[in-house]
Design goal:
The protein has 203 residues and is an alpha+beta fold. The chain contains four helices and twelve strands, in the order ααβββααβββββββββ. It has an eight-stranded antiparallel β-barrel. The radius of gyration is 17 Å and the shape is elongated. It starts with a helix and ends with a strand.
Length: 203
C-alpha cells in the first residue's frame, strides 16, 4: 500500500468521524454503545467480525508538527465479539521507536511481542465505525542495572482512536495512539507523540 493511498483512506475516515453525531466522550466503563440499538450493534459485528491481516503503519510526529510514516510491518488482529478486539503479535519495537530514553528504548525494542486487548464501541452503521480502547500494556524490562515495570497507556474514548470499514475497498482500518509511558508506577516524559494504524482485509 502506498502512503498516498493510505492518506486518502485516512482523510475519508476522519471526515466521516467528524460528521458523526454523539460519538461521546463519557467515562462509562461498560461495553454498551450509545445511540445504537442491539440489532444495529449485531449488524455491525456481522459486517466486521472475524480475522484480519495486512499492514501496520507507524507514524511519528516530526519537528514541524506533522506525522510522518516511520515504517510498515505485517499486522494481524481479530474481532471475536461485538465488544472486544485483539491485536496479535504487537511488535514492541514500534513503541520503542518513540521512546527518547536510550536504555529504555533498547530494552523495550528487545521485549517480546504482545497481544493487545481492546474494548470497542460501535458508533455508526454506514460505514461501520467503532471507538477502540486498548488496555494498558505491561513489561518487565532490565536496564540501568535493574528490573523495571514499564506500562504503555493508550488513549481511550477518543474519536481519533477508532476503526472504520472502507466500503469501496472492503479494508478495515484501525488506529490506536500511545498516550503515556509509566516506569515503576510513575508517569514519565519519555514517550513522544505517535500513531499506529492497521489497514487490513478479512482472511
Amino acid at each position: 500500500m502506498t502512503t498516498k493511498h493510505f492518506f486518502s483512506i485516512l482523510l475519508g475516515c476522519l471526515t466521516a468521524l467528524c460528521v458523526t453525531s454523539c460519538l461521546g466522550s463519557d467515562d462509562d466503563a461498560n461495553n454498551s454503545s450509545k445511540g445504537l440499538s442491539k440489532a444495529e450493534i449485531a449488524q455491525c459485528y456481522l459486517t466486521v467480525g472475524g480475522n484480519y491481516s495486512g499492514d501496520l503503519l507507524y507514524f511519528s510526529k516530526s519537528d514541524d508538527g506533522l506525522f510522518e510514516e516511520v515504517d510498515t510491518l505485517n499486522g494481524a488482529w481479530y474481532i471475536p465479539t461485538d465488544s472486544t478486539l485483539f491485536i496479535t503479535d504487537f511488535p514492541s519495537e514500534v513503541l520503542a521507536e518513540n521512546v527518547i530514553y536510550s536504555e529504555l528504548k533498547e530494552a523495550l525494542a528487545d521485549a517480546p511481542d504482545q497481544i493487545v486487548k481492546c474494548r470497542i464501541r460501535f458508533v455508526e452503521t454506514s460505514p461501520v465505525q467503532f471507538l477502540v480502547n486498548p488496555y494498558t500494556l505491561e513489561y518487565t524490562l532490565h536496564y540501568g542495572g535493574g528490573d523495571h515495570k514499564v506500562q504503555v497507556v493508550f488513549y481511550n474514548e477518543n474519536i481519533y482512536s477508532f476503526g472504520i470499514l472502507n466500503a469501496e475497498s472492503r479494508e478495515l482500518m484501525l488506529k490506536i495512539i500511545p498516550a503515556y509511558l509509566y516506569v515503576d508506577g510513575k508517569q514519565t516524559n519519555y514517550l513522544t507523540q505517535s500513531q499506529i494504524i492497521f489497514v487490513s482485509r478479512k482472511q
